[in-house]
Write a structure and sequence with these properties.
Blueprint lengths: L7 E12 L5 E15 L3 E7 L2 E13 L9 E4 L2 E11 L4 E8 L3
Length: 105
């Protein structure tokens, strides 16, 4: 993995549960790590969901290895949150590929 190709900055976040003043649990996101990454293939796919047709933006990001990243985490890339749909290791702790879908507001 060449450092010159790692042109994107991503932040990996993990969900944490806290209790608010009213005593109800709230889900918040805490930063796990900030990494340099390479964008592999952004795309948009049209899918038919229960509510009708919709567009899903997907991207694959390649970064240096970080232990413990799972599908339950999310990525902040270019200021927008992305759900991690798949984590694929590269070699023996050399890197990871994160396949993500954009979270629509």
């Amino acid at each position: 993995m060449k450092a010159g190709r790692l042109t994107e900055v991503i932040e990996i976040q993990r969900a944490t549960s806290t209790v608010n003043d009213a005593g109800t649990p709230e889900q918040t996101w805490a930063a796990l790590a900030t990494l340099r990454a390479e964008r592999l293939d952004p795309s948009t796919a049209e899918t038919i969901e229960g509510y009708g047709a919709g567009d899903t933006a997907t991207v694959a990001l390649r970064a240096r290895f970080l232990d413990g990243v799972t599908n339950a985490d999310r990525v902040i890339w270019k200021g927008a949150p992305w759900n991690i749909t798949r984590v694929a290791p590269i070699g023996r702790r050399k890197g990871i590929e994160l396949y993500c879908e954009r979270i629509e507001p």
